[in-house]
Specification:
86 residues; alpha+beta; two-stranded antiparallel sheet; Structural Genomics Hypothetical 15.5 Kd Protein In mrcA-pckA Intergenic Region, Chain A
């Protein structure tokens, strides 16, 4: 019988407060400090490294509204209205 090692990743959850109705995915990546530039954000998105609401997203200008979330590696960011943030 073959043994398989499974490593469970702990997800760090964060809130990303926004003042506007929505934020585009590339801007959210920069605001959260995942990407240092718009070009860096573009590469992460094109390489399918970003999940939006649990699914891989290839749309750089994807609009994220309060209640949406995005993930990169072991980090998850929940979009919240600035008035709703803790």
């Amino acid at each position: 019988m073959k043994k398989i090692k499974v490593r469970l990743l702990e997800i760090e959850e964060n809130e990303l407060p926004i003042k506007t109705e929505f934020i585009k995915l590339d801007s959210a990546l920069k605001l959260s400090n995942i990407a240092s530039t718009g070009g860096h954000a573009k590469i992460l998105i094109e390489e399918e490294r970003i999940k939006v609401n649990g699914e891989k997203c290839l749309v750089r200008g994807k609009k994220l509204f309060p209640g949406d979330n995005f993930e990169y590696r072991n980090q998850r960011f929940l979009i919240v209205s600035l008035n709703e943030s803790k």
